[in-house]
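TA notes, week 10

Several of you asked for a full example with nothing omitted. So below is the full record: structure tokens for the whole chain, then the designed sequence directly under it. When grading your own attempts, check the secondary structure regions first.
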């Protein structure tokens, strides 16, 4: 991600976070070009519970904005929750629901308690080709519908933007509300919707629903495929002979 090379973002990241990475998918490198693959940036608490996610590659300005939002929301939630774990989780999920409403104009009720996660034998799990369970499929909270606080002018703008967005949206970016109405929702909007119910869960529980459910990629342990792994080695000509070492 080019955003990581930005000095301002790098400075903020070093001041407030400890960075790490893990490959969960695969892609192909042809020449110097990368084909396929994707990326997700997880902002986590010290114990690996997910506070926020940025789904897909973004520029430095966007990633810095999201990082600052996490830090400020943590401070606010700690203050308002009086450092109660349950209250902090509820505050953070409410913050995601609020961003979904303000930025994407769709309303959900945040889930402030955790229901039991499906067991390993449940069909609602992401699995590898061998059938081994990777992560549960996390259900997002139902969408109530458009934000009822929108002014008439804002409603016109919202519905016009929806018409345009639906024409270019892929299937997974269309969500259905409680009344069966379909709405276009960007990857980041879908992150806020998911986090309104599952923020503060362990990253190993969340990553499948981000990488496969939102980004549409497949979790894979296969290595990166490089068409020309040693470009500095010149290939021999068709008539070149290979002489065994023991014959020299």
């Amino acid at each position: 991600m080019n955003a990581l090379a930005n000095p301002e973002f790098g400075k903020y990241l070093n001041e407030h976070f400890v960075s790490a990475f893990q490959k969960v998918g695969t892609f192909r490198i042809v020449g110097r070009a990368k084909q396929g693959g994707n990326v997700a940036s997880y902002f986590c608490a010290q114990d690996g519970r997910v506070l926020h996610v940025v789904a897909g590659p973004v520029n430095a300005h966007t990633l810095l904005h999201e990082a600052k939002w996490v830090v400020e929301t943590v401070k606010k939630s700690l203050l308002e929750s009086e450092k109660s774990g349950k209250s902090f989780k509820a505050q953070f999920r409410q913050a995601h629901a609020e961003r979904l409403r303000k930025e994407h104009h769709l309303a959900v009720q945040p889930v402030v308690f955790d229901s039991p996660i499906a067991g390993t034998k449940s069909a609602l799990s992401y699995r590898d080709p061998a059938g081994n369970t990777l992560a549960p499929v996390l259900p997002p909270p139902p969408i109530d519908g458009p934000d009822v606080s929108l002014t008439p002018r804002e409603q016109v703008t919202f519905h016009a933007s929806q018409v345009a967005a639906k024409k270019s949206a892929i299937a997974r970016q269309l969500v259905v509300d409680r009344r069966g109405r379909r709405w276009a929702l960007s990857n980041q909007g879908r992150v806020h919707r998911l986090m309104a119910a599952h923020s503060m869960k362990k990253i190993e529980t969340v990553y499948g629903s981000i990488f496969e459910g939102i980004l549409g990629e497949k979790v894979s342990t296969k290595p990166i495929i490089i068409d020309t792994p040693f470009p500095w080695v010149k290939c021999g000509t068709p008539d070149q002979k290979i002489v065994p070492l023991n014959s020299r």
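The first strand starts at residue 28 and ends at 30. Use that as a sanity check on your answer.
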